[in-house]
Design brief:
alpha+beta; about 35% helix; binds ligand BES; binds manganese (II) ion
């Protein structure tokens, strides 16, 4: 172990350089114009893994390619097998003008590395890859087989990965999946995340007149789709932060007293938190703490809102249409399809006859909950402690990783969520960064994890 850790220390600068090259690819999965960049990024990654001596396959899908990179298998002795999951796609960088340096020209400032995808998720799985490089280059035998599965569609719902898992079930069958794509509650405080929220996305569009109209000549005699949309959206949530869609809370599993107590022990300062987010005051569902609100309660959010004239100055029109992109965050035991049905039914009921409503459902992901007391969970907690020199906490998270439920259904494997992101990493925001101390700790985690998990596997029957 010492030689592995020494290798990681000695080569850190090169690893950071390589990570900068990786971040340089604008692999924005949501934008069709970047299709070629995703492919180039995946090919670069394939080459890199190949040079590390991994057995590599780049698999095409109707969407973006999926990379598989496995440690070479030796015939005979069967070792435990773990999957390391990550994603090379990133969120759109817009608005560009709010970045202090260009999002795809990574910049190092002290112990921060700025760039879109630095934390979510390139930097995080890079740490695991480099830990495996250290094993290989120091001639240290890994106590398990590993397969890296790095996909390019996480940020758009992982829509092709689930079929891919089904088709490659035999070779991907594993004892557990390791994922570093979540966060830590505070610097220096590592965490094992045992629950993620699910998600359901939809877009709605209200159409009024068949063209933009002069608002003076016609205003007053026809409905305004932008206003109608605002009125509609305003009815989806009340002043107490409760979603007002009938049936929405039907399947929500209540928090146990035990969990509420545990969540209360996590670090939290309301005023600091509000200042950090730049809001004048916090807002959330009444009766719940902010940690509960953001990790264990469902929400509805408007992600984008579009209508009418957006250029300089004014233009007096009644816009022909107005649209909104919405997502709902779901908690156990809500289901994306069922929730979307509740929402659509409610929207139809609320839409006035003066406009036409179109709704299209987008990606969806189920919420995730896993036992934090399994042998693998305990083993990862030990590895976290060794890597960070600090006792880890158990965490629920509010974000979503769509594929985790498919890992369970298709491969029979639970996911160990060992996040390396800090609260101020700005994922999905301008000036995303990854903390280089966490990068180093993440590599140490990648070093300590495999002996711990391999030992745990000896005591855990594989689920088939
Ligand atoms: N890494 C995040 C998920 C995350 C972040 C989980 C922080 C827990 C804490 C992931 O890349 C992500 O952003 N997922 C999307 C999925 C969606 C677009 C289907 C999300 O949660 O919005
Ligand atoms: Mn993300």
């Amino acid at each position: 172990m010492e030689t592995v850790l020494a290798y990681l220390r000695d080569h850190e600068d090169r690893f950071i350089q390589e990570l900068c090259d990786y971040i340089g690819f604008p692999s924005v999965s949501a934008q069709p114009a970047h299709r070629g960049d995703l492919s180039a990024c995946a090919h670069w990654l394939r080459r890199h893994c190949h040079d590390l001596g991994l057995e590599v396959r780049l698999c095409t899908t109707p969407g973006h390619p999926i990379l598989l990179a496995g440690t070479p298998r030796r015939k005979g002795r069967r070792k435990p097998h773990f999957l390391v999951y990550g994603h090379y796609d990133v969120q759109p960088p817009e608005p560009f003008e709010l970045w202090n340096s260009p999002p795809f020209e990574p910049r190092r400032v002290g112990r921060s590395l700025f760039g879109r995808g630095a934390s979510d998720n390139k930097g995080q799985h890079w740490a695991h890859l480099k830990a495996v490089e250290a094993y290989r280059r120091t001639g240290t035998e890994l106590p398990c087989d590993l397969t890296f599965l790095i996909e390019g569609e996480e940020e758009v719902g992982s829509s092709h990965l689930s079929a891919f898992l089904r088709d490659h079930r035999a070779e991907l069958r594993c004892d557990a999946v390791v994922i570093s794509d979540t966060g830590m509650p505070a610097r220096g405080l590592p965490a094992l995340t045992y629950s993620l929220r699910g998600i359901a996305a939809l877009e709605l569009k209200l159409t009024g007149p068949d063209r933009d109209l002069h608002s003076g000549i016609f205003g007053g005699s026809v409905d305004n789709p932008a206003l109608a949309l605002c009125q509609l959206l305003a009815q989806l949530r009340d002043r107490r932060g409760r979603v007002t869609i009938p049936g929405f809370y039907d399947e929500v599993a209540p928090l146990t007293l035990h969990e509420r107590k545990a969540l209360r022990r996590l670090p939290f300062h309301a005023r600091q938190y509000a200042r950090f987010l730049g809001v004048p005051k916090l807002f959330g569902e009444r009766g719940f703490t902010p940690w509960e609100q953001r990790t264990a309660r469902p929400t509805i959010e408007i992600n984008g809102l579009t209508s009418g004239y957006q250029g300089a100055g004014s233009k007096t029109i009644i816009p022909t249409c107005a649209s909104a992109k919405l997502t709902l965050r779901l908690v156990p035991n809500q289901q994306p399809e069922r929730t979307i049905r509740h929402v659509v039914r409610h929207l139809r009921r609320l839409t006035p006859p003066t406009v036409r409503l179109e709704v299209s459902a987008g990606h969806g992901a189920e919420p995730y909950l896993v036992s934090p007391t399994s042998g693998y969970a305990q083993a990862s907690l030990r590895a976290l402690r060794s890597a960070f020199g600090q006792t880890p906490v158990l965490l629920r998270e509010g974000g979503s990783i769509p594929i985790v439920t498919a890992f369970r259904k298709q491969l029979g494997a639970d996911s160990l969520l060992l996040g390396l992101a800090l609260p101020d990493d700005n994922p999905h925001s301008p000036n995303e960064k990854f903390d280089l101390d966490n990068f180093a700790a993440g590599m140490r985690l990648g070093a300590h994890l495999w002996p711990e998990l391999a030992a745990a596997s000896a005591k855990t029957p594989r689920r088939d």
